Structure formats: C-alpha cells, structure tokens
C-alpha cells in the first residue's frame, strides 16, 4: 500500500454493556488524527461499515497527487465541522484507501445536489455539526445535522446499514443518494453506476469503480419506511454519446438512472419529529443478492431492536476477555484495542454464501465465511496470531479465503493486500504464508487441507515476476539496482521462507523443507559487518556505497530505516544477535535504538512519520520493529524488554484525541497492545512460542473457543512495578521468558510476580 503512519486520534466514547456477569467500560470508537479510522456503525467483521464522511477532498489536484486526501483514508476527520453524508464501506486505520460507497444524506429546504464546501456548507447538501451532539458506540452512531435540523442515527447488521432520520416538519424533505462520492476519489474512479426504482419504497443498483481495487462492482438494495413522493437524478458526466435514451425526460420520476457521475434524490413530506428510516443492503454478487440480504438480516423496521442486536454481537466478542486494570484509562484502552481488532478482515459474501472472486466470476463459500480486507504486511505480525487464540474458527475461515483467492488467481499467488474481490498488490512480502503457517503450526486446521495450503505457499514464493523474486531466488538477495526496497524484501522473503519450511517439516515434505530452510538464511546476504547493519546490495555483489542508516528514503527499506529493519530476523533472533557482535554488544545497540535522538532533518524528508510515533529511533508508528523490544529476551537482559514494553504502552496508547502513535493498520497496532498488555507476544508467527514481557493489567481471563480458560494474574502490580521477578505457569516457575501456544490453549494460569527493581 505505501502505507503511511500518522498519530491516531481516538474519540467520543460509546457506552457498551456486556452480557452478565461482566459489565464493560466504554471502548473509544473513533478516528485517528489523520482520519484513518471511522466512527460508524458495524458489527464484528461486518461487510457494512456505515459511517459519516466529513469532506470531499479529491485524490488528484491539478493532475497530481493531493497530499490532503491522506487525511481522509477513512472518510472522517475529527477536526472537521461539517458532514457530507453517511457512506457504507470504509477501511479502519489504513494508510491508503478506497471505498466510501453509496453516500446518503438527508436534507430539508430547496434541493441541493452539490455537497458544497466546508467554509460554506449552506451552498450544498452538507451540514454543520458539533461533537457535543455526537455519540459513537459499538454498533451505533448518532449526530445532529444542524443546518437541516435532522437527527441522524445509524446502526447495522453484517450486510445491512440501518438509518433513522428524525425530520422537522417539512414539505421539502430529501434523502440524497450520491453515487459520485467516494474515498480517494477522482474524476474517472467511477466506471459506471446504475439505479433502478422498483416501486415506491424499494431502490436497487450498483457501482463499478477503478481505484485501489481496480475492478470492483458492489450492488445494493435500499428500502424506505414510507413511500417516496417523487424522485429524480442528475448525471454530471459530460458524455458526448447519449444514445436514444434522450427521448425520455430522465431527470425526474424516471425509474432507471445510469451513468458515470450520478446523484439521485428522493422526496418526502414529513411531520415534526417524524422518523424516516432507510435500510441499505450490500452484495458483491447482484441486486437480488442485496435484496435477499436485506430480507434475511432486517426484515422489519424496529431500529432499537437492530441496534440492540448489533451491540449484543459486540458484547459477545468483547466478553471473550475479562480484564482488571490498574487504572480506568487502561481498561478503556484495552477494550478500545479489542474493538479495533474485530473491525476486520471483513465478511465478503451474501447470506447464501455467494461472492465475486478475483477471477471476476461468482463463487459460493460452502461451509465457511469468505473474508476480504487482508492488510497482510501489517496483520500477520500480531492480529492473525491473536485470532488463533481468540477467534480460531474465523481465522481458519480467513485462511480458507486466502486459499480460494489462490485458486482463482491467474498468477497462482496467495493474497498480498486484497479487498472486495481484488488484489491491489500493496506493500511487500507474501505474508499470507505467515498467516497460514501460524495457523497450521498452532493446530488451527479447520475446513482446509494443510498439504494443499503448503503447496500454495511454495508456489507463491516461487512466482518469479513478483517484486524482485526472480533475483532473490537467483542471487539469494534482492539487488537494489534491480528492484527497490531491496533490503526489506530480502529480509521479509527470508522470514516467509522459514514459515514454509516449518510447515513442510511438520507435514513431512523434506524436499520443500530443504529448499525453504536454505532460503530462510538469505538474510545473511544483506548484512554488512563493516557497519553492523543490513545494507542494500547491488547485482555485482557489492554493497551500495551511498548509505544513510537514519534515512527512510532510497536506502533499500520501506517504512523503516537501517536501525529498525536490521533487527528484522524474527526467525533467527539468536543468530542475528551473534551476527551483530554477541549479546553484550547487541544489548548496547538495542539500547541506542530507544534512546538516540533523531535530527529534524529526518522528519523533513518524510510525510509518513512524526515524533508522536517514535521513541528515540524506535518507530512504533510503523510495523517493522514491533518485535524489537522483545529481543532483549535473547540477551542477558530480559528485564529491559519488560521496561521497554511498559514504556511503549504508556507513550503510544492513550484514551485521548491523539491516543495512538500511528495508523491502527487494520488492527495490528491494537493487537500489539493487547498481547503486550497481557504479558506475552508472538515475535515470530509460524512458531508456537511467545516471548514474555511485562503485563500491564491486574488480571485477565480469556474464554477460549474450545471451552477452556486461560488466566493471567499479577502479584504486586503497580505503575512503578514494571519488572517481572518471576513467572509461574500452572504452579511451575518458568526458567526462560517464553511460553508456548499449547500452554494457552490447554487452559491454565500464568502468574507474574512484579517488582519495581529488575531481576538481573
């Protein structure tokens, strides 16, 4: 993706009540500082993410990329004071974007089909609003639209958004359907849109777009709680050819609307306080599929019942972990993070299992849920490992979805970054391999064939045209003069290859084990002993002469620099430490990462990093060094892991308007928080081992899907007591700062005895 990281903004707590016997605090439902998380209505892993959008910033300005659009990756920007409408699809915490489909806006007064501007909302259909009149809860959103005196309320099921608009008395009440609106929008993003008025309450249609997903069609069915008085549309595309449809007056009360740039309107008479409700269903297959989704999920018009159903779904998922914390803020942080991790991946199929594949054919998911929105460069690190504990059945279905992607792929590649029936090829690596290996190694093999999964992983890793792989296989590294970000790619390919080797060994495929375990050692080929860093290498075998260990641009890395990326050998941490001079020297080196000061020039050359996401030169706002603080566990100073983790938790995660130190990246930042606050972390997914840190809770009980529970307990916990004096697992004192996956899944209890002084 060219995934960029800015400070996260969390906001507007929503009250969430769990089922007995646990009552939960308010997760903070909201948006990052740069607008990368949305505050809307959805259910866990829901296909519909119904949320307000606050501006119409275009992707293109004067023929060039408009950097301001980056603030609107999720459509909503907290500092804005106007709302343009409520659209049904959004990404959570990504650094690139798409979606924002089917924007609806209720208005009163003279019909205005232009959105207007933030400075003069009265010139369009947008409206001013105040955060004082705004509520965001899990599964529910409410806001007063001041310019139109309308109270807007939203809730959702998996595939249906439910709107409830309380109007004033008006003979000019409108509900606008803007099919031009979108996120990361530009003039030619819409390929085609179509609307069909089936009767006086039911509307169907679709939208085809060419964006991050370059071939995407999404269908809808929309129904109103009262009959339409009149309706119409305007096509803003200046098409020379208009065909013989011109014999009709299509602008008003004509039941078919088609074009590239359409805004439609539907009129009603309303009494003071009258609620006009809209149910809006999505389908990746057809308008009939959308209509059937609507009938299956919200057959009636009871808004409060659907809201309660949505919040019950959230309570069911959030109640899988019950925690007690030192401070109330920590409790809010915990459930905010847990909420974020359940926003995606998203369901991508109709209620009957139908979905559109990446081959642009319709398929049926039999016996599993098909998922989309795989931000794998981010989420393989902690989110999917978290799912192997909290959501193993869903994660198995996600693996199955990846394998079906592979089967449909003309390249015979597993997904890299995919959404809504498309591969967008964003970022680097082939980290589906990591997700699949982690599931298989942890015994989460449900509904798919592990041997076929292994073959898919191996074939993906051998696809020569992909991103320097031909050179990597030929030379043992990606040469920088042949393919950029070469060091990052070499290191990440080597890790993924190790994952393949582990599965091959487990399944008895020694041929594949030998092939990929050898490839997993390729990290050595970009290590420069003269500098002590991983360094870009050229096709002639020489290291590139120009080399800046602090710069993030043009140095062979992506979203990181030599200091952070040189630590990325998660499959062989002990060997990496030896390569870098041994435990003592490495400990000093790692200390420097957290304590050094970056010059202002570092920030002058980049738009994707601010000091908010950095501690010293440790970049928590981006993912490549998320494991770094745990590396002390392989040295003689594991107590420094404990110290660093608690420091990162305190600095990077707060229940405040600037609460997170980077994009949530589809849940990865939040998953890091959850693991770390519980006291253990998957440094190397694909391994069954977790490195211990310093738990920041008093206690936690995890309700496992297999019916067992795993408890985390702390003794002598406190804000100053960040060091672990000893850890006891099921009555036995641990001799090493590690536990294994089976220790958790078999149920039991780990007790951390905390102290204010390190145990060296």
UniProtKB/TrEMBL annotation:
InterPro entries with a match to the protein in the record: 6-hairpin_glycosidase_sf, GH-type_carb-bd, GH92_a_mannosidase_put, GH92_N, Glyco_hydro_92, PNGase
Keyword Calcium appears in the UniProt entry: yes
Span of the signal peptide: 1-18
Keywords: Calcium, Hydrolase, Signal
Oligomer and partners: Monomer.
Name the UniProt record assigns to this protein: Glycoside hydrolase family 92 protein
Domain Glycosyl hydrolase family 92 N-terminal residue range list: 24-283
Residue ranges constituting the Glycosyl hydrolase family domain according to the UniProt record: 289-755
Any one Gene Ontology molecular-function term assigned to this protein's record: peptide-N4-(N-acetyl-beta-glucosaminyl)asparagine amidase activity
NCBIfam families given in the database record: aman2_put (TIGR01180)
Cofactor: Ca(2+)
GO BP, sorted A to Z: carbohydrate metabolic process; glycoprotein catabolic process
A matching Pfam family: Glyco_hydro_92N
PANTHER family referenced in this protein's UniProt entry, alphabetically: PEPTIDE N-GLYCANASE PNGASE -RELATED, SECRETED PROTEIN
Cellular component GO terms, alphabetical: cytosol
